[in-house]
Write a structure and sequence with these properties.
The complex is a heterodimer. Chain A is built from 4 helices and no strands. Chain A is mostly helical. Chain B is globular. The chains are: A mainly alpha, B alpha/beta.
Chain lengths: 74, 512
């Protein structure tokens, strides 16, 4: 979870990722951020994120991202 | 002699020919050409009345907060109908930058999503025209606008920290629209999927293509670019035939393996502009659309539209760099050596490197109210064989490849292209310099990762976090200019002549 937050903080140091659950709804992450997040998560956790997982629900919070990572690791 | 029509008259020809055809579509529905024309003329009449009351008699700038909506286009066309010129800027333009734009352009009024406001922000009461149907349009000055009149200003990053207002004429845009239409056989049949925001100069190609050819301009909701499966589904559902996107937008679709889940079906023309598209991603797209035409466009804000193009012949090899191609007209883009001489293609060999310079009818008039910077970038054309009054120095370096195509070789200065935006690193550094806790700073650009990296040295013992720095910069810089990485350092390395040593910073960054 910490690594996920670090990746996000690198993109937007001004956001509190521990609590924010509206990263997409409030347009905090734009499309370029999403690409960066996906490539960093793939490298960091050695996973492949299929296009079907790239949906708003999975990117709205650090928690949701982490849940997706865990799911894909299994 | 051929009748000379201006772009308002060209638009009305289209409106008369295809009144019921869709002109614009966004997430709130569509307008046909008759509706767009009517809305624009109504706003133009209201605007003209307001300006008349203020006793404004010359061509004046009118601001437009550029939303990604049909309304913004109606406002833009309204300003043209009123015979004035528009200045678009993003909704989230930081206050300081907005003030600089207001001051430099001298604008007194701006549209803000359907509301006309004074520059103070106070809404102007416009008199709604009561007539049903349209009254005589003889009063609208736009019909009399000629090639020399100013069409719009677009503000671009300046290395002195003050943005430059590039001034473009009706004639330059019309000349471009004609070249573009002819080169790519554009007709009213195209359904154009617009990605670029309307405060971004590249978007004007899409807008004027719609206005002058009768194509449908489909404004793709921004959110879809985060979720590429939905994006490709949208392209298919709306039968989009043509896209002119920044490479990063094309890359998003390809890099996320979207094509494994959904394939584009209706695209025939895929054009990209603003920066380099990786050959890998281009190849992915080309595999999906073997029948489509792929075009690399090259331009600069100082030119209406773009000035050169390269039609991709075959799927590029990994790592191959796409050429910029050739000018739309002969001698539109030329290569000039440091000695000021022309460099020509060498048969079957690469030419020497030089600066890419642009000539001809599509050139901007210069930077608004800034003669010094205009003179620096737009010199008198010294080449009698090229018919052009001026020569614009892009600051881009290039050479001819073995086939005589122009190839991009980097910049003469510290201008970068980041997410399709043109940015002067010095402008970011100047904004950082205003933070009192910071002693010195410098920016570098990691082109491979498309990241701006800020190095800073702060006064000892000052409690200043990276978060604080970004929070302070948000008030001064547009979001796309914010550093992606902030690194604290003991000292900013200087070269022997006292300038920031960016090479050494780059080494430090790579060795971290």
């Amino acid at each position: 979870m910490e690594r996920v937050i670090e990746i996000l903080e690198d993109l937007h140091p001004e956001v509190d990722f521990e609590t924010c659950t509206t990263l997409i709804d409030d347009e905090i992450l734009d499309s370029f951020d999403i690409v960066t997040v996906i490539s960093e998560l793939s490298d960091e956790f050695d996973i492949t994120i299929p296009p079907q997982e790239i949906i708003p629900e999975n990117f709205n919070s650090a928690k949701a991202l982490y849940a997706m990572v865990k799911r894909l690791e299994d | 002699m051929k009748e000379q029509k201006n772009m308002i008259q060209l638009f009305e020809d289209i409106e008369k020919q295809f009144p019921q055809k869709t002109a614009l579509r966004d997430s709130n529905g569509a307008w046909n050409f008759a509706e767009l024309g009517q809305k624009a003329r109504q706003r133009a009449r209201e605007l003209s009345k307001v300006l008349e009351e203020e006793a404004v008699s010359r061509q004046v700038p009118v601001g437009i907060v550029a939303f990604h909506t049909k309304e913004t286009i109606a406002e833009l066309l309204a300003v043209m109908y009123s015979g004035n010129f528009f200045v678009t800027f993003a909704e989230d333009t930081p206050k300081q930058r907005r003030e600089m734009i207001f001051e430099n352009s001298g604008l007194e009024f701006y549209y803000d999503g359907g509301i006309l406001r004074k520059k103070t922000g106070e809404p102007v009461k416009t008199i709604e025209s009561e007539e049903i149907g349209e009254p005589e349009n003889t009063l609208l000055r736009g019909y009399q606008c000629t090639d020399e009149d100013t069409l719009y200003l677009v503000y671009t990053s300046g290395s002195t920290g003050v943005p430059k207002g590039v001034q473009k004429s009706w004639g330059a845009m019309k000349a471009f629209a004609e070249q573009y239409q002819k080169t790519f056989s554009l007709s009213e049949q195209e359904i154009l999927g617009n990605q670029t925001p309307f405060y971004f100069d590249a978007a004007m190609k899409d807008v004027f293509q719609m206005l002058t050819t009768g194509a449908e301009l489909n404004i793709i909701p921004d959110r879809l670019f985060s979720f590429p499966i939905k994006l490709v589904e949208y392209l298919n559902e709306h039968k989009i035939t043509m896209i002119v996107w920044v490479p990063s937008a094309l890359k998003i679709v390809s890099v996320l393996n979207t094509f494994l889940a959904v394939q584009p079906k209706t695209l025939q023309k895929v054009l990209f502009v603003g920066e380099v598209l990786d050959s890998k991603h281009l190849a992915n797209w080309m595999e999906q659309l073997p029948e489509a035409m792929f075009v690399n466009l090259y331009g600069s804000s100082e030119v209406a539209g773009v000035c050169s193009y390269y039609i991709v012949k075959q799927k590029p090899e990994p790592g191959a760099v796409l050429p910029l191609g050739q000018g739309f007209e002969a001698d539109e883009v030329a290569l000039i050596s440091e000695a000021g001489e022309r460099i020509f293609p060498v048969p079957e060999n690469e030419s020497a490197q030089g600066e890419l310079c642009v000539f001809g009818k599509t050139l901007a008039d210069g930077y608004f109210h800034d003669e010094d910077r205009t003179r620096e970038a737009f010199s008198d054309n010294p080449f009698p064989e090229i018919s052009s009054k001026k020569m614009f120095h892009t600051g881009d370096l290039g050479r001819y490849d073995t086939e005589g195509n122009l190839v991009y070789c980097g910049r003469k200065d510290f201008q970068i292209k980041h997410m399709g935006y043109r940015i002067e690193l010095e402008e970011i550094e100047l904004a950082v310099r205003e933070i009192p806790e910071i002693v010195s700073n410098a920016c570098i650009f990691d082109a491979k990762k498309d990241k701006i990296i800020l190095f800073y040295q702060k006064k000892s013992k000052e409690p200043l976090t990276k978060k604080d720095i970004i929070a302070k910069l948000i008030d001064r810089l547009p979001e796309y200019m914010l550093p992606n990485k902030v690194v604290e350092t003991e000292e900013i390395p200087l070269s022997p002549n006292g300038k920031t040593d960016r090479m050494r910073l780059m080494e430090q960054y790579r060795n971290r």
